[in-house]
Amino acid sequence: HAQQGYTLWMDYAGSNPQSRKNLKFLAKSIYMEAGSDILKSAQNEIEIGLSGLLNEKLNFSDTMENDNSLVVSKVSSLKGSWSQSMDVSSEKLGNEGFYIRSRDGGILVTANTDIGLLYGVFRLLQFIQAGHHLEDFSLLDAPSVDLRMLNHWDNLDRTIERGYAGFSLWNWQKLPEYIDQRYIDYARANASIGINGTVLTNVNANALVLTPMYLEKVAALADVFRKYGIKVYLTARFSAPMEIGGLETADPLNTEVRNWWAQKTNEIYKWIPDFGGFLVKANSEGQPGPQNYGRTHVDGANMLAEAVQPHGGVVIWRAFVYSEDDETDRAKQAYAEFVPYDGQFMENVLVQVKNGPIDFQSREPFHPLFGAMSKTPLMMEFQITQEYLGFSSHLVFLPKLFEEVLQSDTYVKGKGSTVAKVIDGSQHNKRISGMAGVSNIGTDLNWTGHPFAQANWFGFGRLAWNPETKANDIAEDWIKLTYTNNKELIALLKPMMINSREAVVNYMNPLGLHHLFDTGHHYGPGPWVDNLGRPDWNPTYYHKADENGIGFDRTKSGSNALEQYSDEVSYTFGNLKTCPETYLLWFHHLPWDYTLNNGNSLWDGLALRYQEGVDQVSEMIETWEKARNFINNDQYHEVKMLLDIQLKEAKWWRDASLLYFQTFSGMELPEGVPKPT
Ligand code: GCU
């Protein structure tokens, strides 16, 4: 099992032999439209996929015949009885969608475009892999989000900011000549879940990537990814005109600076004709930006937008800003800085907003910007890499978290104004929409470190394609594609994955607590840390525990961050009777003896939550023992060792947090919570 995990959810030869028997006929005579590189990728995937799945030699036919067993062809080239099989309006397929249907003795995969066909081929293979019956089968699917992107926080020296699965895949030293097979497999994996963009470099950007030496290498990667419908984007360091351009300023209203960016952009498009555009972190955590020159986010974003516009590129401007001068509440700052600019950004600017107002915690309420900028396309930024969720050591199924955010109701246009609708653009009829995930991918043999972290990459892709997708369905599909479609195994693993998200919340940040991590690394507990350079970097800033109680008052009597939400949301969260206990200490500062819904005191309830998190990890271990019969030994041992770490560390979080908070509450631990030894 040297290659354990490398094939991700595309282990065509490995899983579900029984489900393929009655599909062997598919190999008989395959017609595959020829032409573009993307179609070649589709053909290549059929070759690897179908021959692996069916264990049969594939016969391709050069012409489309009525008795083909499989036809993969654009709607516009369908012939004979195959064009009659196209029984839906092709408009519904759009530019990226596909239609798959079975008919007597054959299967049709069709689309308006080459990329639609590639997506259709991947989906067909996944259906076969998962063991679905393909008789009387039809499926029409098209993405509801335009930009479905990974954000790599990869540095040019191949370290990865917040990366826990080895080094960066991008081997700058050997590029452009040496094309690592991993680039191709990375592109295949992404295309198989519909991802169509990738930002290669860290948001804490290095201007060097914009120099010819690197652009040549970026172009080589773009050449590989293009064949899978994936565009390349780069992060733009705002001060690049000074650092690599020799200018004395990076002021976005300075003509020389504007010309420099225009020329730089032209140069990039010479290398990469379909370059996607720039992702920018400006005036945040020490990164340079327009505010250094007394200018605004709009000035900065529009300058770059003007440069990429003639080439059809976009600028993705991040809203992750919080300044050290603001003493009230970090959670309020992005909204305060961005809402006034709604309507002033150029058409090709998207503002990228993290899912919650602080920073990728295991649970946060949705960001108040969602729904609050009706004229600006807002892109979702999720974090797939588990910076605050146990790195690649802890098993946490993130689609559950993503789903919770996407299904949150902003109420900006009444009930049903979910974040999902803001993101897919339907809420305010946006011209362009997008979702980004901060990648968890690295050079580890299995790509993501923890085998189950593959499910987070997979799940992100599914949700970016369709933000209404259910976490439950994602878990089930991933298990089937990665392990087997055995019902007993699914019955074991699916609840384990689904519950894993609540487990990490319980043992790290129960009842709405947040940002209690030790300095810098964000791995273990450090709720006591109070000596960092900025108040809002200290955990004490977030939990505000003292003899009287614990929690961040964000109601009117406190920071009033609630006023940034619509009235309905602000009422629900602001009122103790209606605020879900999952967000209790996010919005309220409460006495230790405050009575929770179940009658427990806040102190007891908090302690019991930590314990519940520990118990949930113990249950995961028991489940994994039962799963042992269905998987191979290596698969079993790898995850078992990781779960043992997770259990040890869940206890560490519980004990460290409770011992510290106890110095304020002065209360005994309730029954069922062991005294730390
Ligand atoms: C977090 C993370 C940083 C990252 C930042 C960002 O604060 O810890 O490493 O640069 O988010 O999203 O810009």
Number of strands: 16
**CATH architecture level-2 label of the largest domain:** Alpha-Beta Barrel
What's the CATH H-level superfamily name of the largest domain? Glycosidases
| Morphology call | globular
CATH class of the largest domain: Alpha Beta
What is the CA-based Rg, rounded?
26 Å
Proportion of helical residues: 25-40%
Give the tally of structural domains: 3
Ranges with pLDDT <50 over ≥5 residues? none
Protein name: Xylan alpha-1,2-glucuronidase
Family: Belongs to the glycosyl hydrolase 67 family.
Domain Glycosyl hydrolase family 67 catalytic: 128-447
EC number: 3.2.1.131
Structure description:
GO terms for molecular function: alpha-glucuronidase activity; xylan alpha-1,2-glucuronosidase activity. Belongs to the glycosyl hydrolase 67 family. By secondary structure, the chain is α/β, with parallel strands linked by helices. The protein has 3 domains: 17-141, 2-Layer Sandwich (Chitobiase, domain 2), CATH 3.30.379; 147-482, TIM Barrel (Alpha-Beta Barrel); 505-552 and 589-665, Alpha-d-glucuronidase, C-terminal Domain. Helices cover 36% and strands 10% of the residues. It has 19 helices and 16 strands. It has helices at 37-54, 80-85, 114-129, 181-192, 212-226, 240-243, 255-271, 297-308, 333-338, 399-406, 419-423, 454-465, 471-482, 487-508, 539-543, 567-574, 584-587, 602-627, 633-665; strands spanning 30-32, 60-61, 70-74, 98-103, 106-111, 138-141, 147-151, 197-199, 231-235, 277-280, 314-318, 349-354, 378-383, 434-438, 549-550, 590-591. The chain has an 8-stranded parallel barrel. A 6-stranded mixed β-sheet has the order 2-1-3-5-4-6. A two-stranded antiparallel sheet has the order 15-16. Strand 1 (30-32), helix 1 and strand 2 (60-61) form a beta-alpha-beta unit. The longest helix is centred in the last third of the chain and has 33 residues, at 633-665. The two termini are 40 Å apart. The model has no long low-confidence stretch (mean pLDDT 96).
